[in-house]
TrEMBL record, chain A:
Belongs to the binding-protein-dependent transport system permease family. It comes from Nonomuraea phyllanthi. This is ABC transporter permease subunit. The lineage of its organism: Bacteria, Bacillati, Actinomycetota, Actinomycetes, Streptosporangiales. GO terms for cellular component: plasma membrane. Coiled coil: none annotated. The chain crosses the membrane at residues 12-31, 100-123, 135-164, 176-194, 232-258, 278-304. One of its GO terms (biological process) is transmembrane transport. It is a multi-pass membrane protein. CDD domains: TM_PBP2 (cd06261). Keywords: Cell membrane, Membrane, Transmembrane, Transmembrane helix, Transport.
From TrEMBL, chain B:
Its main location: membrane. CDD domains: ABC_NikE_OppD_transporters, TM_PBP2. GO terms for molecular function: ATP binding; ATP hydrolysis activity. This is ATP-binding cassette domain-containing protein. The keyword Transmembrane helix applies.
Length: 314, 612
C-alpha cells in the first residue's frame, strides 16, 4: 500500500515535469509577434533576424521544434543567450548553487528560530494563560508575516550596511555577505512558521496523550521535546516545505537587492533585456526546483509521520 | 474530561481585538487615500522642478525629489490609487478565472475533470512570482503583464477553494434533502450551493488583495511591472533604491507605504478569517453544586479524599465538597451523567485539572502521603491513569514500547535495554499477544483493545498504588469492553492497588466494582456496595439510573425509560437538593434544604430527605 502511494506520487512528479517543459517551450511561441525581432529591436537588419531565427530553429514546424527542444533539454542543452552567446546551461550551472545556498540557509534559519519560538509561546499561553504574551506574539508575527522580503532586504541594507557599515551592502564574497540576504529572506517565513508551530503545539497540548504523559509526571523538557514536538512537525514541515518554494521566488527579489550572482538576478536581467533563451531556461529550472522541493516534502513527510499511511488509504 | 472547558466570556472580545482594529483602520485609510490622493496631491506629484533634481529630504520636500525634481511625498500619496487599483484588477481576474476553473470539474466528463483538478493542484504549489514572470515574458513588460501574471498566480488558489467548497456543500445533508424533494439542479446551485460558498470566497478575495498588492509591488520593484510615465509604489521604490547609498530617505516613502498596506490587509484578513471560522461555541457549562459531603476516610485506604473542591474563575464549581476513599485491592466506581463532575474529580486526584481551574481539599492522600508533597517521580510511578480513547492517549509519533519504557527511564534511571525488557514483560502481563513485536509498533498499528491494554501496561511500569480509569471502555467494542474490564480487575487484584473507575454506565460499574459512588451535579448523592445496586439502591437518582437500563426483559418496542429533565448547570443549583426538580418524590423541603450524606443501612450512605 505504502509503495503504491509512493509510486503514484512519483508519477505525478514526472507528469508535472513534462507539463513544465512543454510550458517553457510554449513560452517563446506565446510571445505576440516575432520574439527575435522583439529582442534585436526594430533597427536590426532583416537578414540578421532571419539568420537568428534559423539558428534557433524557430522556422521549423512546431512539432519538430518541440522534439528538438525536449531532446536538447534532456541532454542539458538549454540554448544560447541572445546577448552574450553563452550557453544557457552553463549560466544556470554557475548561478544555481548561489541561489540554492541562499534558500537553504534561509529555510534552516527560519526553522531553527521559529519552531522553538512557537513552542515556547504555546507553552506560555496554554489554556488562555498570559493573554498579554499571546497578543504580543500574534501582533508581532502577524506584522512580520505581512512585510515582503524585498522591504526587509532594503531595510537591512539601509540599517546594517549603509548606516552601521557592519556588512557589505551587496555582492557575494565570503560568509559575511550571506548574513543580510539570509536574514531578509528568512524573516517572513520565520514569523509564519512560528505562528503555525504555536497553533500546532497548542493543539497537541490539549490531547490525551499529553494528559497521560503529564500523569506519568514526565519532566517538561521531555514532555515537550519528545512527545509534543514530533507531532507538531508534520504540519510545521508541510508549511515549511511550501514556504521553501515561496522562498525560492522571494529569493529573486532579495538577490536583486543584494546584486547576488544567482539565478534570480539573471532572470530579471534576461526578462528586461528580452534575452528569451535565458529567461526560458531559468524559468524551467526554477519550476523544476519547485517540483523537486514539493516531492521531497511529501517524501520526507511520508517517512516522518507513521500515520500518513492510513491517511493515504482513507 | 467532561467539563474542562473554561467558562468563557472571552469569545466576543477577540472579534475586535487590537490587531483587527489596526488592520481595519489602515485599510480604511488606504481606501481614502486612493480616492482623494490624486485630487489633492496630483498637481504637486507632476510638477517638474529643474532646480530641485535628485534632492534628499528638506523642509520643502520631506522625502526628497526625483530625477525631474518632483516631490516624492506627493508621488507616494498619489501612487496609492494606482497601486490599489492594479491589485484589485489582478485579484478580480484571478478570482474569476479561479471560480470558473473550480466549477469546471463538476460540469466536465470524468476524464476532463481529473485533468483540470490535476492542473489546479500542480499550479497551487507554484510560487506566484514565477507565474507572473512567465506572463511578463509573454505579455511584455508593463502593468498589463504584471496584473495578468499576479492574477494567474491567484487563480489556482481560488479554483482549489471553489472545488472543495462546492464538493462539501454538494455532499451535505441539506442538498441531499433538496434533491430528494425534487428541487431542480439549477435551483440547488443558486439556492443552496452558491450562497454557502460565497462567504469563504469573498473572504479569500479580501486576503488575496493584500497578496496581489505586494506581488505587484515586487514586480514593479524589479522593473518588470509598471513602466514610466505611470508609477505605483513599487516603481517609486525601483527609482529610489539605487539612491539609498546617498539619500536613504527617498526609498522610505514607497517602502513604508508598501509595508503598511501589506500589514493592514494581512491583519484585517486574519481577523475576518478568524471571525468567519468561529462556529457557534457549544458551551458546556460545568456543573456545580453546593455543600460538603460526609465520609471519614478509612484508616487503611490507599486513596483518601476529603472535601475536594474544583473551582473555575467566575464561580463555577464543578466539584464541591467531595469525599471518597478507596482501599487496597478495591475498585470503587464513580457514576454519574456527563457534567456531574466525575472526570474532574479524577483529574483533581491526578493533579491534572486544566488551567484556570483551582483545586482545594481538606485531605488528598495517596498511600498515606499528601499528594501536594509528592515528587513527580513518586506520583509518576504510584498513580496510573487510563483514559477513554486509547488512540488519543498514546503518542502517535512514538513506538508503544518506548512510551512504556520512558516511565522507568525517567523516574527510576533504568537503562534503556532494561526498561525495554520490562515494557515487553508488562505488555505480556496485560495479555497483549506477541508483546515483543507489538512494542516495536506505533499505536495506529494496534487495535483499539490492544491500545487500551498498552495504556494499562504503561500504568504498571511503576509500582501503581492507585489506578484511575476514566471511561476506559466507552470507546471500545462491546466484546472488547468485557476483556478490558476483566483485565482491570485482574490488575487490581494482582498489584494490590486501589482502583477508581469512572463511568456513566451504571451496569458496567455494577459488574466491575466493589463499591459504587453516585455523583450528581458535582456531589455524592449515594454510596453503596455494588452487589446492592439492583436491590438496595435508595436515592431516587440512583434508582432512576438503574431503571433506565435496558435488559433482556425490556420491551424493545417501547421507548426506553429515561430521566425527565436535565442536570442543572452550576449556577442554577438552588439551596436544596440538586435533583429535586427532576425527582418524583421531591417535597418542599427538598428544594429548600440540602440533604447531607447519612448512613442508610450497612456500608451505605444516601443524601436524600425522603428515603433516609
Amino acid at each position: 500500500m505504502r509503495a503504491r502511494a509512493w509510486v503514484r506520487r512519483l508519477v505525478r512528479f514526472v507528469v508535472s515535469l513534462a507539463v513544465l517543459v512543454v510550458a517553457s517551450f510554449a513560452m517563446i511561441h506565446l510571445i505576440p509577434g516575432d520574439p527575435v525581432r522583439a529582442s534585436l529591436g526594430p533597427a536590426a537588419p532583416i537578414e540578421l533576424v532571419q539568420a537568428r531565427t534559423a539558428a534557433l530553429g524557430l522556422d521549423r514546424p512546431l512539432p519538430e521544434q518541440l522534439v528538438t527542444y525536449v531532446t536538447h533539454v534532456l541532454s542539458g542543452d538549454f540554448g544560447t543567450s541572445f546577448l552574450t552567446g553563452e550557453p544557457v546551461g552553463e549560466v544556470i550551472l554557475t548561478r544555481l548553487p548561489n541561489t540554492l545556498t541562499l534558500a537553504l540557509l534561509a529555510t534552516a534559519a527560519a526553522l531553527l528560530v521559529a519552531v522553538p519560538l512557537g513552542m515556547w509561546a504555546a507553552v506560555r499561553t496554554e489554556n488562555g494563560r498570559r493573554r498579554g504574551t499571546e497578543l504580543a506574539f500574534s501582533a508581532t508575527t502577524g506584522t512580520a508575516v505581512a512585510v515582503p522580503e524585498f522591504l526587509y532586504a532594503i531595510a537591512l541594507v539601509a540599517a546594517f550596511a549603509i548606516g552601521l557599515g557592519w556588512f557589505p551592502p551587496a555582492g557575494r564574497a565570503g560568509p559575511i555577505t550571506y548574513v543580510l540576504p539570509v536574514a531578509a529572506l528568512a524573516a517572513g517565513p520565520a514569523a509564519m512558521i512560528a505562528r503555525i508551530s504555536r497553533v500546532e503545539t497548542l493543539r497537541e497540548l490539549g490531547k490525551d496523550y499529553v494528559r497521560l504523559a503529564r500523569a506519568k509526571r514526565l519532566p517538561g523538557a521531555r514532555l515537550h521535546l519528545r512527545h509534543v514536538l514530533p507531532n507538531t512537525l508534520t504540519a510545521t514541515l508541510t508549511v515549511g516545505g511550501l514556504l521553501l518554494t515561496s522562498l525560492i521566488a522571494g529569493g529573486v527579489l532579495v538577490e536583486y537587492v543584494f546584486a547576488w550572482p544567482g539565478l534570480g538576478m539573471k532572470i530579471v536581467e534576461s526578462i528586461t533585456q528580452k534575452d528569451y533563451p535565458v529567461a526560458q531556461g531559468v524559468i524551467l529550472v526554477y519550476g523544476a526546483i519547485v517540483l523537486v522541493v514539493n516531492l521531497a516534502v511529501d517524501l520526507v513527510l511520508g517517512a516522518l509521520d507513521p500515520t500518513s499511511e492510513i491517511r493515504e488509504r482513507t | 474530561m467532561t467539563q474542562s472547558g473554561r467558562p468563557g466570556p472571552r469569545v466576543k472580545s477577540v472579534r475586535w481585538s487590537a490587531p483587527a482594529v489596526a488592520g481595519a483602520v489602515i485599510v480604511g485609510l488606504m481606501a481614502v487615500l486612493a480616492v482623494v490622493g490624486p485630487m489633492v496631491w496630483g498637481a504637486a506629484a507632476d510638477r517638474i522642478d529643474a532646480a530641485a533634481i535628485l534632492q534628499g529630504a528638506s523642509s520643502e520636500h520631506p522625502l526628497g525629489t526625483d530625477n525631474l525634481g518632483r516631490d516624492l511625498l506627493a508621488r507616494v500619496l498619489v501612487a496609492g490609487r494606482y497601486s490599489l487599483l492594479l491589485a484589485l484588477a489582478a485579484t478580480l481576474i484571478g478570482a474569476f478565472a479561479g471560480v470558473v476553473l473550480g466549477t469546471l470539474p463538476s460540469v466536465l466528463p470524468a476524464r476532463g475533470a481529473r485533468l483540470v483538478t490535476g492542473t489546479v493542484n500542480a499550479l497551487v504549489a507554484f510560487p506566484g512570482l514565477l507565474l507572473a514572470m512567465f506572463t511578463a515574458v509573454v505579455a511584455g513588460l508593463g502593468a498589463r503583464g504584471a496584473v495578468l501574471g499576479i492574477g494567474a498566480a491567484i487563480a489556482p488558489g481560488f479554483a482549489r477553494l471553489t472545488q472543495t467548497l462546492a464538493a462539501t456543500v454538494a455532499g451535505s445533508d441539506y442538498v441531499a434533502a433538496a434533491r430528494m424533494l425534487g428541487v431542480p439542479r439549477r435551483r440547488i446551485l443558486t439556492r443552496h450551493v452558491l450562497p454557502n460558498i460565497a462567504e469563504p470566497l469573498i473572504l479569500n478575495l479580501a486576503q488575496s488583495l493584500g497578496g496581489a498588492l505586494l506581488g505587484l509591488a515586487g514586480m514593479s520593484f524589479l522593473g518588470l511591472g509598471v513602466q514610466p510615465p505611470d508609477f505605483d509604489w513599487g516603481r517609486l521604490l525601483f527609482d529610489g533604491f539605487p539612491r539609498i547609498y546617498v539619500t536613504p530617505e527617498v526609498a522610505l516613502g514607497p517602502a513604508a507605504a508598501i509595508a503598511l498596506a501589506g500589514i493592514g490587509f494581512n491583519l484585517l484578513g486574519d481577523a475576518l478569517a478568524r471571525a468567519a471560522a468561529r462556529t457557534p461555541a457549544v458551551r458546556r457549562p460545568p456543573a456545580a453544586p453546593p455543600g460538603e459531603a460526609a465520609g471519614e476516610p478509612d484508616a487503611g485506604a490507599v486513596l483518601e479524599v476529603e472535601d475536594l473542591t474544583v473551582t473555575f474563575p467566575g464561580g463555577a464549581t464543578p466539584v464541591r465538597g467531595l469525599s471518597l476513599s478507596v482501599a487496597p485491592g478495591e475498585i470503587v466506581g464513580l457514576v454519574g451523567e456527563s457534567g456531574s463532575g466525575k472526570s474532574l474529580t479524577a483529574a483533581a486526584i491526578g493533579g491534572l485539572v486544566p488551567y484556570p481551574g483551582t483545586v482545594g481539599y481538606a485531605r488528598l492522600r495517596l498511600a498515606g502521603q499528601d499528594v501536594a508533597t509528592m515528587t513527580g517521580k513518586e506520583l509518576g510511578t504510584a498513580l496510573a491513569m487510563v483514559f477513554q480513547d486509547p488512540l488519543a492517549a498514546l503518542n502517535p509519533a512514538l513506538k508503544v514500547g518506548g512510551q512504556l519504557a520512558e516511565v522507568a527511564v525517567v523516574h527510576e534511571g533504568t537503562g534503556r535495554a532494561e526498561a525495554r525488557r520490562r515494557a515487553v514483560a508488562r505488555l505480556g502481563q496485560v495479555h497483549l499477544p506477541d508483546p515483543e513485536a507489538r512494542s516495536r509498533q506505533h499505536p495506529h498499528e494496534l487495535s483499539g483493545g490492544m491500545r487500551q491494554r498498552a495504556v494499562i501496561a504503561m500504568g504498571l511500569m511503576g509500582t501503581p498504588r492507585l489506578i484511575v480509569a476514566d471511561e476506559p471502555t466507552t470507546a471500545l467494542d462491546v466484546t472488547v469492553q468485557r476483556q478490558i474490564l476483566r483485565l482491570l480487575r485482574e490488575v487490581v487484584d494482582g498489584s494490590g492497588a486501589a482502583g477508581l473507575f469512572i463511568s456513566h454506565d451504571i451496569a458496567v460499574v455494577g459488574e466491575l466494582c466493589d463499591r459504587v459512588v453516585v455523583m450528581y451535579a458535582g456531589r455524592v448523592v449515594e454510596e453503596l456496595p455494588a452487589d446492592r445496586l439492583a436491590e438496595g439502591a435508595a436515592h431516587p437518582y440512583t434508582r432512576a439510573l438503574i431503571a433506565s437500563l435496558p435488559d433482556l426483559d425490556t420491551d424493545r418496542s417501547r421507548p426506553l425509560a429515561g430521566i425527565p429533565g436535565v442536570q442543572p448547570a452550576p449556577a442554577q443549583v438552588g439551596p436544596g437538593c440538586a435533583f429535586a426538580p427532576r425527582c418524583a418524590l421531591a417535597s418542599e423541603r427538598c428544594s429548600a434544604e440540602r440533604p447531607e450524606l447519612v448512613a442508610h443501612g450497612p456500608a451505605q450512605r444516601v443524601a436524600c430527605w425522603e428515603v433516609s
